Amino acid sequence: MESQPPQSGQPSPQPVDPRSLSVGQRVAILVKALDGAKRTNEALARCSNGDQMVEVLLDASAKLGLGLSRAELVRTPP
Q1: What is the pLDDT of residue 39?
Q2: Going by C-beta distance under 8 Å and a sequence separation of 6 or more, which residues neighbour residue 30?
Q3: Could you tell me the pTM of the whole model?
Q4: What distances in angstroms separate CA 54 from CA 9, 24, 43, 45, one per listed residue?
């Protein structure tokens, strides 16, 4: 019979849906995720204007499940 860890009486924390966070918090998560993301950083470096950069960031946001919109990215600096 396996022993089970003692229960503290507190439920384990549920994961937070990133879309429920503020725009600033989601942008901060995006920026942190981009640190060391070689392909995304290379794609950003190839961008010739801000609109192209926003497209790359929108794609990264979608992959992370952050749900950031174009307007939110444009008006919220990292």
Answers
A1: 95
A2: 57, 60, 61, 64, 66, 68, 78
A3: 0.76
A4: 45, 16, 11, 12
